[in-house]
Amino acid sequence: DMKVTQMPRYLIKRMGENVLLECGQDMSHETMYWYRQDPGLGLQLIYISYDVDSNSEGDIPKGYRVSRKKREHFSLILDSAKTNQTSVYFCASSGQGGYAEQFFGPGTRLTVL
Amino acid sequence: GEQVEQRPPHLSVREGDSAVIICTYTDPNSYYFFWYKQEPGAGLQLLMKVFSSTEINEGQGFTVLLNKKDKQLSLNLTAAHPGDSAVYFCAVRRGSALGRLHFGAGTQLIVIP
After folding, report:
1. Is the sign of the CA dihedral B93, B42, A51, A78 positive or negative?
2. Complete edge-to-edge strand list for the sheet that includes strand A19-25
3. Tell me: the pLDDT tens digits for A23-70?
4. Where are the beta strands (DSSP E) in B39-106?
5. Measured between beta carbons, which residues in chain A are less than 8 angstroms from residue B89?
6. How crowded is the C-beta side of A34, counted as CA atoms within 13 Å?
7. Are A31 and A6 in contact (CB under 8 A)?
8. pLDDT (tens digit per residue) in A59-104
9. CA distances from A87 to A35, A65, B66 (A)
């Protein structure tokens, strides 16, 4: 069905709590991504995963970690969330090759109080 | 690294008018180019992708022009309609990169009926 799913869609947490954002894709894509989107800043890359247990930092990895134990699932973890991590988080996946587009999930709106 | 500048950040046009969004990139090794559309509360959806050559691609009501000499990519919506109201992002990828896309900051387009 060529879909990227994200759970939950909305999340409210208190500062210092742990946060788990989950992403799934049904296209058997090797590469997956986590981005955050803030007004006026576009999309900022947090992490890239090239396959199971093969993850690389993006531009803003501080305060985040990821886990990929199955090709179809990619998790973003915030240990002890901070208020400046309030944002909309997008997961994406892509196939092989430079011409391969990224498919995006619907996003998770995270608010850290 | 690659820098992608997108302008304008906001654009308001009347229904039936044209709208032009321009992206300028810096890395001469950028080879693959994408335009995405993001509707409110949703993820990014691919609008069009182009290869590294001077090229015009036409879709449903829009034209994409790539000028590699000037390192410029443009999206031209002809006869805009209210359904085109969205945020538009350009993205570029190097020929040798492993999946990494560099995004512009986005353009908020409003089409007034």
Report:
1. positive
2. A4-7, A19-25, A73-78, A65-70
3. 999 999 999 999 999 987 889 999 999 999 999 999 999 999 999 999
4. 44-50, 55-58, 62-67, 72-77, 86-94, 102-103
5. 42-43
6. 31
7. no
8. 999 999 999 999 999 999 999 999 999 999 999 999 887 788 899 9
9. 10, 16, 32
Residue B108 CB coordination number (10 Å): 16
Interface of A with B in 3-22 (CB under 8 A): 4
Helix or strand holding residue A84 (H, E): none
B52-62 per-position pLDDT tens digit: 665 566 667 88
Taking CA–CA distances from B42, the nearest residue in chain A reads A106
Note whether A98 contacts B105, CB cutoff 8 Å.
no
Tokens of B69: 């000499």
Q: Phi then psi for A104, rounded to 5 degrees? A: -105, 145
Residue A50 touches partner B, C-beta closer than 8 Å? yes
| A102 near B CB under 8 A | yes
A46 close to B (CB below 8 A): no
